[in-house]
Structures are given as C-alpha cells and as structure tokens.
Amino acid sequence: LDLPQIAVVGGQSAGKSSVLENFVGRDFLPRGSGIVTRRPLILQLVNSKAEYAEFLHCKGRKFVDFEEVRMEIEAETDRLTGSNKGISPIPINLRVYSPNVLNLTLIDLPGMTKVAVGDQPPDIEHQIRDMLLQFITKESCLILAVTPANTDLANSDALKIAKEVDPQGLRTIGVITKLDLMDEGTDAKDILENKLLPLRRGYIGVVNRSQKDIDGKKDITAAMAAERKFFLSHPAYRHMADRMGTSHLQRTLNQQLTNHIRDTLPGLRSKLQSQLLSLEKEVEEYKNFRPDDPTRKTKALLQMVQQFGVDFEKCIEGSGDQVDTNELSGGARINRIFHERFPFELVKIVFDEKELRREISHAIKNVHGVRTGLFTPDLAFEVIVKKQIVKLKTPCLKCIDLVIQELINTVRQCTNKLNSYPRLREETERIVTTHIREREGKTKDQILLLIDIELSYINTNHEDFIGFANAQQRNIASNKKRAMPNQGEILVIRKGWLTLHLSIMKGGSKEYWFVLTAESLSWYKDEEEKEKKYMLPLDNLKLRDVEKGFMSSKHVFAIFNTEQRNVYKDLRQIELACDTQEDVDSWKASFLRAGVYPEKDQHENEDTMSSGDTVSMDPQLERQVETIRNLVDSYIGIVNKSIRDLMPKTIMHLMINNTKDFIHSELLAYLYSAGDQGSLMEESAEQAQRRDEMLRMYHALKEALVIIGDISTTTVSTPVPPPVDDTWIVKDSSPPPASRPPTATTAPPIRPPAVRGPTPGPPPPLNLSPAFGAPPVPSRPGPPSAYAGDANPAMPLIPSRPARVPPALPPGIPSRRPPAAPNRPTIIRPSEPSLLD
To answer: I want to staple 162 with a disulfide (CB 3.0 to 4.6 A). Which of 47, 102, 143, 313 is the partner?
Structure first.
C-alpha cells in the first residue's frame, strides 16, 4: 500500500537536511559540502513524551544520543554505497519519538547534481533523478520543493521535477531557505507572498543555522528563536512573520499531510477491505489453531482424505464448480482417449489394403495346397480374421497405458491441496498410485481375455455379418453406388479453423475455416462459409504425419493422393497445422470417419510392392480374394464395434470406478497402517510460516481499518487553495521582460500590492537581488499579460490599478508609453501595511 508521505527534494546543499533537523530539534543528520545524503532516509516523526530514535535495521535498539544516530546513518550509508560518493535507492528507515515534533512522515532524498565526483558513475544525475521519481510519482506523496533564496527560483531543479509529476500543483509545497544570505538590499518578499513565481500551495521561508553556528554547536532551540527574530525584525518579512519559519512549516506540513491522508482514505480503505476479505476464508481455519493437538490432527486427516476423494471424483466425473477453461483434464481427457484416440489406433492397424490382399492370396493357396481350388475356402477366411483380431491387442494395451497416465496425473493434481502436509501428500500419492498399478495388470488381463474370447469362436451367423453370397455382390454394389451422383444432404463430419501451410511464393501460411464432409474437404475465408476457397474430393486421399518445424509451435499433418496426383494447385500434398497435438488427433479421427486413412511407413510399402509382384493375377483367385476380403471386412467391423464398446466399459469398471471406491473406503486404513499419525500430519515449515504471516497480516489489516475509522471521524481538514498560473516552471529559465505597457486606466499608488492576484511570472520589483531574475529594463514593451486573480487586467510592475474613484495621478506615474530607464528608481514600494497583515 502506498501510504501518504512527504518527500523533500532540492539541489545539493539547498538545506533539505537542515530543515528536517529543525523539525526534530536535534542534530542527527550527516553534514558537509557536496553530496552528503546518498540514500533515501524515511523519517517518521512521532509525538511522544520520551525522546529517542529507532532504526528499522536495528530492531529493538533505542538511540537516546542523537550523535549516535548520525554515526549509524553514516555507517549504514557506507555499508551499501562505499565510503566515497556513490548512491543507492534502498532507503534507511528512522523513527524519532519526541515531545517537540508533530506526527509526520518525511523522506530526505539525495540532492540533485549535474557533475559526478569521486567514484560516482558518470550518469549520477540520471540515477538521482530516477530515484527521486520513484518516490514523488506516487499520487500519495506530497512534494516539499526546497530552493535556496540566493539562487534564481526560475532555475529551481526541485520545482521543475515537481511540475513534471504534479502539473496541477496539488501536491507541491515550496520552501525557501537561506533568506539571511541574500545580497544586501534584496529580499524574497514577492516570492513568499506567492506573487512573483506562484505555486498553488504557496511558499514558506525558513532560516537554517550557518556552518559557523553548526561548528560552534549552536542549539537548535536558540537557532529557531534567532529565526523568529529575523522575520520579525526584517522590514520585508515582518508583516508575514507568523506565516514564516520552521514551526509554521511543521504545522503546515502536518495539516497538509492530514488533508492528504483524508483524501486518500477512501481508496486506502477499499484496498484494505478487499485484502481483508480475501484473507477471511483462509484465516478462519487458523484462528483457533493448536499445532500439537491430536484431535485437530485426526480431524484434519479425515477432512483431507475425504476432500481428496471428492476432488478425484469431480475430476473424473466432471462438475460445474472450478471448471478449467484452459485445457482438458481428468475425465475429459480419458473420454478423448476412449472415443478419438483409441478408434484412430484401431483403424490405423486394420486397414492396410495391399498387405491384407496379399495375405488372403497366400492363405487361399496354402489351404488348397497342391490342388487348384474350385471354391473359396472357409479356413482361409478364419485364418485371416484371427490374424487381424490379434492385431487389436497393441492398441488396446496402449489405450490402457494412456488412461493410467491420466489417472496418475489426476491423483497428483488432487493431492496439491495436501501440500501443507508433505508426508501425508507423499503417502496418499504412493498408496493410490500403487493401487492403480495393481489394477492395471487385472485390466490388461481382462482386455486380453476379451480378445481371446473373440478368437475362440468366429461367429459367421452374426446378424450383422454379410455372409458368402452378399460378399460376392458387395463389390459390384459399392461400385455402382460410387458411380451414382450424390443425392440428398451431405453429412458434415467436422468444422473448424486450420492453418494451411504454403510456401511464401504461394502466399505463405494462412488460417481458413475447414468443413469436412463424407465426400469432400472444403475451406472458406471465415466461419460464415460465404467465400469458398477450394473443395477437395476425398477419393484416393490419405493422411501422413509431418515433423514439427524447428521454429514452429504448431503441430502439422498432411493429406496426399495415393495415385501421385496433385492435391491442390501444383502441390502433391497439403500440410494442415493445429495449435495442439490433441487437435491433430481429433482431426485425424474425423478424417477416419470420412474414410481418409493414415498411410503405412514407407519401407513397409516398399516391401508390399516388391512382394506384390509375386502374387498371381489369376481372375478366379482375384474373385476369391475379393470375396474373403469383403467377409473379413464385415467380420472385423463387428469385432471392432464390439471392442470399441467393451474397452471403455472394462477400463471404467476394473480401474476407474474401483480406484474411486478404494479412495473412499480403504485409503484411510492404508494411511493409518502406513505410519505414525503424528508424523503424517506434520506441517511443512513453509505452511507454518505462511500461517503466522497470514494471521499477522489479518490482525494488521483489522487494526489499520480501525485506525482509518478514527482518522476519518476526528480529523479536521482544510480546503485545497485555488489554482494559480504556474506555467513559468516549464518555460525557459530566463526571466520574462521587465517592463510592460501600462493599462488604459491608472489608479493611485496607495493600494498595497498584496491584494493583487498571483501573476503568471512578472519580473520582480527593484529591491530584489539580480539572483531573483531582475534583468536590465528593456527599452521596448513586452507582451501584455493579465493577472490570474484579477478580473481587470493590470500590469505587474506599474503600481497603478484600475480606478474605482477618479483621483489625480501622483508624480512619477508613467504615461501610456513604456517608462524610460531613468524613471525606474521613482517606483517606490508603499510603506503602509498590506492587507495580509
């Protein structure tokens, strides 16, 4: 939380640290010439009966001797920055308790400098600037801009940087130091009256001790008395002495900080309340916490095991609460394995046309032996069918392995909530994973048993089996069907976005909306499907895996024509890309439904081709091969359908449901027998630390809200001053021209200048030193300018005002033309007290 505070900014040796010492009434800050403050000092002043200081880095140690405080600041600064002139943005925190202070939080920052000295880095100016901006850019930080009176205010680095971060001037307070060091005959009256170079919150003048006073150990109380005497006795400042000096500055800052705190309270309160609400639920279980209470341990163990069981079941069965929208998990991934991955693996193994026909041909010849057969042999059909059924074992076992992996991942995901008790988490994970591995063996045995059952009896009397007569006619019928034009509505199998990979010459990779039907693959510009880019018929198409590119994050597969024809334009294959491997598998499964199958490995194809040359092309054998091919196709379709149906049921029954029952009924008993309950429920060190921190934070937030409630009810705030024209800060630092043409009407000079509104940067009167920007009087008029606070425009240097009663012009008042230089000394400041007195 960014709490309200006051940052003191200014050039080197502007007197920033002296102002802070005057607040405390003690010498405690490092002193000297050049850069002395080299780390931010966060100074918290607390009104208290006793007087002592505390550092955050020396907790528990009270410093009563303020000379020791100075030495500690110097030592702590050197520890980080070295003994030369380096700087560091890491702050030193100092809290001073004293009856002589008002409650304030101030930050003493390093003075702005231009030139690197000692072992300072060359970019010291930018480093200091960045450090100041870290603090003063926060909206909750008031800026105390300190400028010495013996330099030109228009060149003030402090006001310039304050203007950058606070253009409205709502947070900036001006402080003018070294008023006693101004040239004789000059003063800063117009600045302190906020007339010359106005700020919204105005300026306060202070007089610090000189180096001679410090060396002579002049007491700060005596110095403040001398400061009071200076303001009361100085003719330029005596009328506003009650608004000058360190004590007034301290009161003003206290009031301004109070106002600022009051303004930031609503935002602060809402932040605290939101933090408190977020902690409330977690803290509830810790409020009455006793780490070694056995009843608590037993209760926690029961609750956690029960919660683990509920979470596991929700992950598998799915639930409405805490749904992961980023990726599939648990049951959804298992479902994808059952209904997309497993069917895809089945089809990939079974459908290899050339190899199947070659095997059927060899089987028929081997059954007939030396004789030439007249009829299609049953035995050849049975041998081929059994060989195909045995091939189902591999995808079935692979499916079980995939499901087990998902189950173990789900268990790990659910045990994340047991992180507070590492031993319990470890044991739970071990017991449940061991049980899943035990069930793996039984499930695999059962699946292999199902396949053995299928092998034991080939049921050619199945209602879905086409039979011998139909098998012979099937090829003719399918050919006729293919030749007939498509009638009725085409079944859409899948729609979705895919990236079409083309070379840069052909337009590069681009995303299209793809529509896959039973007949074709089409792609469109977008999902409205109005602008069709291409339609690709599915005849003779196959799928091929493509390795992911070195720089590509997408997963790629390809479609090609088995007859070596171009697929799209002059391309033999088109590459399609998805964001994840799961999407690729899903699209492949959809292509399988459309009749587009994956290719076999290249070397296997070559073997097939070479052995295919030896197959006899006898027409009778071809007919027999075709008949058995159709019969095998029909029967394997029945077996596949049966296995696809029974696999998920077997895995669910023997593995997933069994594991759920085990977690609910037996896990607790295994945990009790695994070891001592006390050691199981030992908290992790991180958990204990987190609990302590959370409780501390909770109580701190509650206390903070109580304090904020008190502040808002007991604090009296003052309104923010009206805005002034402070555009002078961002202008070029050279002062404006000294003389202006007078207005049409003139007024008696007896009207005190204090009633004027703030000006947008008029040049100073004669009695200011050249350091405050009084240039030689030019001989031609400058541009006219109006007072910001006056309804009628009035020129800054002419002591005349618009007349309310027509008096005679006193001598020395210039005519409508600009005054010549010799007339200049006749402009005398009125001696009457101003209205501000």
So the answer is: 143
